[in-house]
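Practice set, problem 2.
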Amino acid sequence: MRTRIPTHTTARNGEGMRTRSARRRLAAPLLSALFAAALTAATAAPALAVYNGSRADSDEYAWAVKVELAYPEGVASCTGSLIAEDTVVTAAHCISNNGRSPSAIAVTFHYGQQRSEYTIGVARAVPMPRYDPARIKDDIALLFLQSAVDEPTIGLASTPAPVGAEVTVAGYGCTGDPFNPAVPCDPAGRLVETRLTTVPTEACPDIAGPWQFCTYSPHTSANRGDSGGPVIWSDHGDQKLVGVTNAIELPPAPAYLNLSASVPYELDWIRTTAGLR
């Protein structure tokens, strides 16, 4: 059985914290340093997030948020995307740590930009009802903000990205190599993005159904704290949210295979729960 790293991060007294699921998924920095996606782990590097990524254009990602969750062990962080004036989509594993819910959740817009940064509390967090952490199944959730915001939103893809398509992943997670657990998490001070390629589902051994898809790169990856972050695909020139970062496959899988929740697969639930037309 292979081990995989969730993409959210957790911090406890300044250090990453590990937990194991029934399938031995590594959930390091999921709270104060939650990896992005079922991706929850730690890393280090320059002042960027996403391993081997580059700083994202803040104007293009005004809908991207940093999600912070208060747990008894500490504060965890994930990434999310604004899909309506009061609704953010993220990963379900971010709001459920070993079956527990956080005592408080807040999202920050324009994180790292002193003049425009602000934080809004979350009134209600709703995981997909069929979420199964053991299989990383339906690992998607909605956060309903305490008040509406005047920010652009990201559109939802209705069809999956084909195999071989280039997608963009963005997040506020750790910046070091996720394959090196000895490296401490160096959280990004600003949003970081990178580009991956969709590959056949069989390439990711931990994918067990159509609720997820697999992406690959030989040199870049999502990381801890990127959990819940956007996977964007340009469909006929229109940027759409096609996935939500969940996890990465660890050795002996080849570097770097990322698992993402499929937005088209969850689209009916998202629209109905969020009250979208």
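Problem 2, part (b): a different protein.
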Amino acid sequence: MLVTVLGAGAGGGLPQWNCACRNCESARAGLLPRMTQSSVAVSSNGVDWVVLNASPDIRDQIEHCQALRPPALRGSPIRGVVLTNADVDHVAGLLTLREKTPFAIHATAETLSVLAANTVFGVLDPALVDRRAITLGAAFSPVDGLTVTAFAVPGKVALYLEGAAPETKMIGEQTIALGISDGVSRLYYVPGCADIPDWLVEKLSDGDLLLFDGTVWADDEMAVTGTGGKTGGRMGHIAMSGDTGSLARLASLKDCRKVYVHINNTNPVLQPDGPERAEVSALGWTVAHDGLEFRL
């Protein structure tokens, strides 16, 4: 299995257009690598690819990934896009993929209903772009050689769908994770997750590679950095640090490579010489960057 991190950043990427925090300024100065928004490409043969979440940056991501460029005058090696939720940073890139090339969109019925309710997504010609509903727990094959099984993880609806008091740890079709296998190796992709119950730790225990939600280091990170008032939990993302954070909760996973993706621009783990990076490295985690590749 071939896995490429097209975009390692959370919504807004790095640098974020309206932010002058330490990380954003470091990226502008060339001291940190820039990150586009969350997306991953997977293939079993290097020819046929499925993209996990269509980032608003997908055009540039394709241009920077040789394997995803057009193989002929017109066309694409991208056979499908699998959506894990309806967040803007995961669906907006679909609008870029509108130029009359066939592929399939795979998403839960709930996420497909969000797309159907917004007529702008009608630019994706239904004669060429099939919309296929994912059934949780039922395996499907979005591309030759790969089998995907989706399952719900704690999370919330997309920001633009929130009511006055959104539930941030819902279990249902609004936030899913993906288990992907080529018959030999298994990848788990969990870019958004608000909590890690015991059953989820057990679920992930047979993975060879885990790409997991690394949005914030601390739950109060936005307030501490002066960049916003929401906690990580309020945004539907578990923190890395703390007794209930992902570092502690996933410490028992010893037999897979663990990689943080969907990293917010405020996260101090992006600083390569900082104590946070040293801690995650010591605990066996890798902090993703755009273009990071794996061969399983």
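Answer key, part (b): The chain has eight helices and 14 strands. The two ends are 5 Å apart (CA to CA).
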